[in-house]
Amino acid sequence: MADKSYLDWPFMAAQHRELEAALDRWASESISQEHGTDVDAACRHLVRQLGEAGWLRHAIGGTRYGGALDVIDTRAICLIRETLARHSGLADFAFAMQGLGSGAITLFGSEDQKERYLTRVAEGEAIAAFALSEPEAGSDVAAMQCVAVEDGQGYVLNGEKTWISNGGIADFYVVFARTGEAPGARGISAFVVDADTPGFEIAERINVIAPHPLARLRFANCRVPASCRLGQQGQGFKVAMATLDIFRTSVAAAALGFARRAMDEALARARSRKMFGQSLSDFQLTQAKLAQMATGIDASALLTYRAAWQRDQGQKVTREAAMAKMTATETAQQVIDAAVQLFGGLGVVSEQPVERLYREIRSLRIYEGATEVQQLIIARELLRDAAGSKT
Predict the structure, then answer these.
(1) Is the Cβ–Cβ distance between 39 and 212 less than 8 Å?
(2) CA-CA distance, 322 to 243, in Å (whole number)?
(3) What separation in angstroms does the CA of 232 have from each of 49, 107, 225?
(4) Which of 59, 117, 185, 306 is most deeply packed, by most CB within 10 A?
(5) Active-site residue 368, yes or no?
(6) pLDDT digits (tens, 9 = 90+) for 200-220
């Protein structure tokens, strides 16, 4: 049983404790860590389940569009992702992408866009995707080459996107393309592109170590009306960063969920595995490892929920979110690796819980800003603050 003492920390309110308890009960009864070989079908099913049960209401903002609140509650997002990740990596993925894929619409969408997309996202009737990365523009957004050229009453998109989660099953994509108002990141705009838009196609499905829907997208003279643009022209970088700002902290929470599951599995294994006439847990080396794992998890949780709480108070969390994301994902990798080691040979058997966690954690150290990018963000913020204090 996972340690839930963190729910009593001052970062949490009563509604957060109630939310976690209700979701944990539901997840225990409704979802499984195993999802079979048809990942697309499993993901669609999970989105429907999460929508029908009301959990996706927390992924969007705006009660009139089906949201739980008018403003997204970052702590709720984090608690949901952590809890789902403990039960099923794919369930966490399904929830997270509904939020990330529609987050730009919550923040910058017109009334028509919100009414058209957000209600269906909250109900699990439409699957969302966030299309920012390109073959030569991952962490370096300014290197984006996908273009959108004004043409009459709309835009024509040409180019490619890659590593797009929900690619191939999404009903719509929030796409970022260069409109050229200024060089670098300042000349980018955001658009909502429906999956059936002529000129848009799935160029390639991508298989990764922890299977989930992933694809390379291609736009070839893909025409969209001006009403599909999100926010002002040239504001695309602002749209992308504001969206990621909400959900980056939740990546840390998902890593926490994976780490807590690994800790539970490791404790159970250490207590039950017999070696040399005693339990594995009786060895001081095992105890030292368990202590390191537990301490790392608590440190990660403190950083994660500090960042979530600060954002819910309306504070800037660029540095805090980066610290949380970096620490939680790197720590979870170490915790899960230690759990695999404690399991011995059984730890590398396919589809064992710790083996699955070992594959699932790896991508979290890369997506939504790799660890190295988080280090640059933290240092940049520190240097900026230091320079400001001298003026």
Answers:
(1) yes
(2) 14
(3) 35, 12, 14
(4) 59
(5) yes
(6) 999 999 999 998 999 999 999
22, 58 Cβ separation under 8 angstroms: no
CA count, 13 A, side-chain hemisphere, 131: 36
With 60 as the cut, is the pLDDT of residue 1 above it? no
Confidence of residue 81 (pLDDT cuts 50, 70, 90): very high
Going 303 to 304 to 308 to 314, the CA torsion angle's sign is: positive
Catalytic annotation, pick one of 20, 134, 360, 368? 368
d(CA 67, CA 119): 8
- Residue 253 in tokens: 């929470």
| Burial classification of residue 196, based on how many CB atoms lie within 10 Å of its CB (0-12 exposed, 13-18 middle, 19 or more buried) | exposed
**Residue 349, amino acid:** V
Q: Are 61 and 67 in contact (CB under 8 A)?
A: yes
Instruction: Supply 308's token pair.
Output: 């979530």
The partner residues of 278 in beta bridges, in order of sequence, read: 275
Q: Quick one: which of 168, 212, 164, 205 has its CA closest to 42?
A: 212
What share of the chain in percent tops pLDDT 70? 99
Task: Tell me the C-alpha distance between 140 and 133, whole Å.
Answer: 9
Which string of DSSP letters, residue by residue, matches 149-201?
A: EEETTEEEEEEEEEEEETTTT-SEEEEEEE--SSSGGGGEEEEEEETT-TTEE
Residue 391's pLDDT is 56
User: Is pLDDT at 99 greater than 70 in this prediction?
Assistant: yes
Identify residue 3 by its one-letter amino acid code. D
List, in sequence order, every beta strand (DSSP E) within 341-387.
Answer: none
* Residues 6+ positions from 325 with CB-CB distance below 8 Å: 248, 249, 251, 252, 368, 369, 374
Q: What angle do CA 53, 355, 375 make, to 5 degrees?
A: 80
Which pLDDT score is estimated for 136?
83
- CA dihedral 194→195→199→203, nearest 10 degrees, is 140
